[in-house]
Structure formats: structure tokens, C-alpha cells
Amino acid sequence: MSRMRFNMILLFNVFVSAFGLLVVLIWASNPPLVDEDLFWRKPLIGSVFGLICLLGILAAFIPKQCSKSFHFHGNSAGLDYNLINTASHHPDCEEFSAHIIHTKRRKFCAACTGLILGATIALIGTAFYFFTGWNIENGFLVVLAGEVATVFGFFQLRFKSFVRSMFNALFVLGAFLVLVGVDSLTESLMADLFLVALIVFLILTRIQLSQWDHSRICRDCTSPCGIGDARRK
Asked: What does pTM read for this prediction?
């Protein structure tokens, strides 16, 4: 895919994501009256969202596969694969220092660490709300807080290390709060399914945004590692 086409798709997806969140906020401010008595609605939606969280955690724990999705592997440009840090799935390069959390012995991807934290907390909340009868008092405020947290997650590219990690955790928690808030307001299966679809779309857009950021860093870098040369082709 050409760089221009990828940028256009990313721009379109960001616009659709913003529009979707705005529609949900308007929807939550004046929720439709729905008369449904589906005892399996909450367990079903909770199971689907829980599965999304589990898949996200699994993806964050297999950085080698993640690095392939970011296009650091799998090309024929003569890259030195040893430059890719296995634990953080980022190049061992100063330009990517903001993306990595350094400990005394290891390096971790800040984004993946945050996503694991956020998804774990969201799983706990999912168990309480969707499976134990936990109720929400003010659904609109929950939706509003969730949308703010989700938007913060998209701005994680502007921050470094632990702050970046926290913003990624907020991204997942925000999605959970939006889903829970809308469910409490509408008690509608169709509304829940729409939210799940929107959340998946937000996740894919978030991944594309990271791909764009990684490509931009390597494209503007003059290091002789070979990754930047591959990105510029």
C-alpha cells in the first residue's frame, strides 16, 4: 500500500472514529426508549467484550507477532533483525526511546504495557457489570468519562514511557466505560452491538495510528540500520 493511500485511509478512519464517538455522546444524552426483556443480553455482550480484551492481552504478550504487524519484519530490504528488541518489539534506537519502558533488566513496549493494564481492569469491570448485576447510577456521565479517556488514548503518541502507557490503559478503560454507560441507558442489544463494532473500529484505527507514527519516525531517521531506507521505498 502506498504511503499516500495509507494516510488517506488513516485520516478517514480517524474522522469516522470521531464521528462515531460524537453520535454515541448525543445518543447517551437522549437515550431511546427500548422495551427489551432479553435475559441473555448482558452475558452475551460481556462475553464478546471480554473476548476482545483477552485477545488484546494475548497480542501484547507476543511482541514478535506485534512487530510483524508494524512492518518491522517480513520485508526484503536487508534489515538487520537483531536491531529489533524482542521484548519491546521496537528497534534498539534512540528515536524509539519514548515508546519503551526501561527497567534494570528488560525493556517493555509502553503501549502494550498500558493495554495489558487497561484490559485487565476492564475484564474485572466486565465481570462485575455484565455477570453479577452491578448497576450504573448515571450512565451519561459514565459515557462522557469513557469518551474523554478514549480520546486521551489517541493522543498517547505525544507522550513518553510511563505516561504513554497510562494513556493506552485509559484507551481500553474508556471503551469499557462507554459500553457500560450506553448499556445502562438503553438496555438494548442493538445499541450494545453497535458499540462493540465501534470499539473494534477504534482499536483498528489506534493500530493504524501507531503504524503511521512508527513509519514517520523511521522515514525521518538517518540511522544506517536499514529500516528507514525500507520505509522510504
From this structure: 0.81
